[in-house]
From TrEMBL:
This is HIT domain-containing protein. GO terms for molecular function: adenylylsulfatase activity. InterPro entries: Histidine_triad_CS, Histidine_triad_HIT, HIT-like, HIT-like_sf. The active site is at H130. It comes from the Eukaryota. PANTHER family: HISTIDINE TRIAD HIT PROTEIN. Residues 34-144 form the HIT domain. It comes from Dovyalis caffra.
Amino acid sequence: IAVLTSHFTTTMSSEKESALAAAAAPPSADSPTIFDKIINKEIPAKVVYEDDKVLAFRDIAPQAPTHILLIPKVKDGLTGLSKAEERHCEILGQLLYTAKLVAKLEGLEDGFRVVINEGPNGCQSVYHLHVHLLGGRQMNWPPG
Ligand code: TR5
């Protein structure tokens, strides 16, 4: 029972962790996030691609053999996709196009998934728009 309980607790805590992180996040805040520190090179990240507008780096807690985050270097109010306005169309397109480029760089010929988590129900935890690029294994549908 102790083993079962301990396994159950472990499983539940990791699920609860991301849900709690998402619930605790300030959906409307435009305050700096950890991603600003990565952009400014104040904290290290495993950068796989960079140009003047987009930065792509490996997720610290990968959910697939390849798990990369693509972010706009200038947030410009884009805490999440729900804040997108017409002026953001160019950067939104660039993020997706760069995801395709990085997928090719990573050798994901058999396919991949791109995800944008939005708000508490979407389990968003970092309020700086980012595209997840996941690959290297068979994905399932529907997502959890
Ligand atoms: O949950 P959402 O969609 O908001 O995704 C945020 C992602 O940022 C998660 O997949 C986290 O694992 C990832 N993350 C969080 C941190 C971090 C990171 N990826 C790379 N490097 C990171 N550092 C240095 N610090 C984080 N807190």
